[in-house]
Design goal:
Layout: H1 2-16, E1 20-26, E2 30-39, E3 42-49, E4 52-55, E5 64-73, E6 79-85, E7 91-97, E8 106-112, E9 118-121, E10 125-131, E11 142-148, E12 156-160, E13 170-173, H2 174-183
Antiparallel strand pairs: 1-2, 2-3, 3-4, 3-5, 5-6, 6-7, 7-8, 9-10, 9-13, 10-11, 11-12
């Protein structure tokens, strides 16, 4: 009886480490989003780079999500954009790029009632713009999350009524990209 129990345990633990590739994206460094540990309509999501795999929000409990949208966008600078319903009372997500001249991937995190609709990419800055639709902590039309390349400790969030200037940026309409992604399924 003991060998059977050991075999069942070994099979169950080996399956728990089998991760499903959800999306791969080369942002100047190859990245992938993988998931495992399905419960109802949720999975635990991981960011995989090289041989290293880590939960997208630090630990597995915070990285359990549903309704997750993953996009690989950009022409001159590539970006991985992930958003979904994780543990916060909002849609959480992040943008990862690896701009030319940067030694490590750059990450910008966000959390709002809606997904970002526009992404502004340049060699020096990432801006994710989220429409507020009248909800949230501001009466402004948009919330803009800013990340300056090489300075993660100075990320900021601004409430704005007009979209940022496109000068010097590649501007990506994520909503349009998402429609194209879903049409291709």
């Amino acid at each position: 009886m003991r060998p059977t129990i050991c075999l069942l345990f070994a099979l169950s633990t080996s399956n728990s480490f089998a991760a499903e590739l959800v999306r791969a994206c080369d942002v100047g460094a190859p990245l992938a989003i993988v998931r495992d540990s399905k419960i109802a309509d949720t999975h635990i999501y991981y960011l995989q780079q090289g041989g290293k795999r880590r939960p997208v929000f630090g630990d597995p409990d915070q990285s359990r999500g549903s309704d997750v949208v993953i996009q690989c966008v950009g022409k001159n600078i590539r970006a991985l954009v992930v958003s979904g319903e994780f543990t916060a009372n909002a849609l959480q997500g992040f943008v990862i790029t690896s701009p030319p001249g940067s030694n490590t991937p750059e990450r910008l995190d966000f959390a709002e009632k809606s997904r970002p609709q526009w992404l502004y990419l340049s060699k020096r800055e990432i801006i994710a713009v989220v429409p507020t639709s009248g909800y949230g902590e501001t009466s402004a039309r948009y919330v803009a999350y800013h990340h300056t390349v090489g300075q993660s400790n100075v990320d900021r969030v601004d409430a704005i009524d007009q979209l940022p200037s496109a000068g010097g940026f590649e501007v990506i309409n994520l909503k349009a990209q998402n429609r194209q992604l879903n049409a291709g399924k």
